[in-house]
Amino acid sequence: MSHIHIENLNVWFGDGADRVDAVKNATFDVPSGASFGLVGESGSGKSTILRAMMGLAPTWSGTIQVGDFKLGKKRPKEFYKDVQMVFQDPYASLHPRHSVDQVLGETLSLHGFKDIDNRIMKLLDDVGLGPAFRFRYPHQLSGGQRQRVAIARALAPEPSVILLDEPTSALDVSVQAEVLNLLSDLREEHKLTYLMVSHNLAVVAHMCDATAVMQNGEIVEVMTVEDMRAMNPKHPYTKHLLDSSFGYNPNAAQSA
Amino acid sequence: MTPLLDVKNLRVTFPTRQGEFEAVRGVSFTLGKERLGIVGESGSGKSMTGRAILRLIRPPGRVEADKMELHGRDLLSMSEKEMQGVRGQKISMVMQDPKFSLNPVMTIADQIMEIYRFHTGAGKKAAWAKAIEMLEAVSIRDPERVMRSYPHEMSGGMGQRIMIAMMLVTEPEILIADEPTSALDVSVQTQVLSIIDRLVRERGMGLIFISHDLKLVSSFCDRVLIMYAGRVVEVCEADKLDQATHPYTRGLLGSLPDIREPKDRLEVLKRDETWRIAESVSGRT
Lengths: 256, 285
Hints:
The complex is a heterodimer of chains A (256) and B (285).
Chain A: E1 2-13, E2 20-31, E3 35-39, H1 46-54, E4 60-66, E5 69-70, H2 77-82, E6 83-86, H3 100-110, H4 116-126, H5 143-155, E7 161-165, H6 173-190, E8 193-198, H7 201-207, E9 210-215, E10 218-224, H8 225-229, H9 236-244, H10 250-255
Parallel strand pairs in A: 3-8, 3-9, 6-7, 7-8
Antiparallel strand pairs in A: 1-2, 1-4, 4-5, 9-10
Helix pairs in contact in A: 3-4, 5-6
Chain B: E1 5-16, E2 19-31, E3 35-39, H1 46-53, E4 62-64, E5 67-70, E6 73-74, H2 80-86, E7 91-94, H3 98-101, H4 108-120, H5 124-137, H6 143-147, H7 156-168, E8 174-178, H8 186-203, E9 206-211, H9 214-220, E10 223-228, E11 231-237, H10 247-254, H11 273-277
Parallel strand pairs in B: 3-9, 3-10, 7-8, 8-9
Antiparallel strand pairs in B: 1-2, 1-4, 1-5, 5-6, 10-11
Helix pairs in contact in B: 4-5, 4-7, 5-7, 7-8
C-alpha cells in the first residue's frame, strides 16, 4: 500500500506574467516503509515538492495524500505530527540561542508529550549523541552533530514520514557516511518512510529503493535502484546525470 | 628543470587564546606544468595552503616557509607592491562561489577590463577586445551583451566562467582553483571543468585544484596531495588514487557511496591520533 501518493501535483509562484511553474504534473507513489529519492539540478522543483507537502508552498493543485491524510488548504494537527522534515543546512536550521534541550523539549511539548525528560534522553541516544550534548548550543557542535540534532528533532513527534531535503550535502564525506548509516538504522527501527531530495545520485542509490529524476519542474523518469546500478536509464537527461556522477570525463564534456 | 612553484615546509599559524594554532603544518610540494589536486575535509588546511601561496592570510595569521619560490623568486620576501604584480598577473585564483567573488555593482566589462588594464596598462579599446576574446574562450554566447550585464543577471555557471575568464585574461602561469565547481550543478560542473582543462593545456599553465571531491580530483588532475589536519598524509598519481595506501585516504574512499557497488552500511572513518602527529609527506618532485 502506498504511504505517500502524489498525483498531478502542480506548484507555482507568482501570478499572471510573473507566474513560474516550479512543479508540473508530478505523479509518484511511495510504499509504506520505503525510501524514495528525488534527484535533479537546482531549480528542477525537487525541494518544492517537499515544501508543498509541508505547507510551505501554499499555491499548489493536484492530490497529495500522506497515510490517511488527504491534504487540502487546512491540515489537521495530527498531520504535522506524522510528517517531519530535515533541512539541508544544519547551521541555518537550528536556533543559535536555543540549546539542544530547548530545541527538543519545545517540539515535544508542542506535540503534547508528557514525559519530556526521558524522551529527550532517548532521542539523543537514538541519534548517537550522548547525554553530554543535552545542554549544548549549536555553535558548540560540529556540522554532523548539528544534523543529528535536526534528525532528533524530526523524530521527536514520532512521525511515520520524514522528508529529507539534501540532508548530507553540507557535510564532509566521512560525516556523510555516519549520518546516512544513522538514517538507515532509524528507518528500520522506527518503520519510517523517507522521501529524500538530493543532487547526489550515489547517495540516492545507496539510500533509496526508487528515484524520480526531475528536470525543469517535470519528472522525466522514475527508476528503480536496480536500473540505476545497471546504468540503464531511459531518459537522456538521466544518462547525463549518471555519467557526471563518476567524476570528470573529458569525452562527456565535449559532447555536452 | 626548475618548477613553476616550489614550496618547502609551509606553515600557516594563527594565535588563539589557547595558544598557537597551526592550520598548515610543514607542507612541501612543487608545481610544474601540471594539474595538481589538493583534497581533504573541511578544516584540513587545503584552502589555507592556496591562500598562503598568494600571501592572502591576514595578520595576526602568519605564513612561514623554508622556501616559497615562483620561478626561483622568493614570494615571502616580496613587498606588498611586488605581490600586487604577482596576484592576478602570475598567479590567479578562482574561488568557490561567483556570487561572492564578483563585484555586484560593477558590470562584467568593467571588472575584466580593470584587471587587464591594471596589469598591462592597455587602453580601453584593447582591453575591451581582450575581454570579449576571453569570454568567447570560456564558451559564453553573446559576449557583447554579457559585458554590459551585472553579476546578478548571470546564472551560477556563467558567473563561474566569467570568473575564470577574468582570472585568465592576464595569462598567468599558475591558476589556483579553490572548489571552483562545488556551487554548481553537475552538468554545468562538467562544462566548467572542461574549459579549465582546455585553457590549462593550451596555455601550458600550472593548476592547483583544491577540492573535497575525491572522485572529481582523481579523474581531473595528474597528481594529488591528500591533506589531513594541516599536513599532507599522502601523495599519489591521480589515476592511482584507488590504490592509495594511507588509512585516511582509504577511509575517505570507503565512506563514499557507490552506485555500482551497493553496500548495506557505509564505512565509518576511524581517526587515528598518529595521523595528526606524523610528519608531512613531501610532494616535491
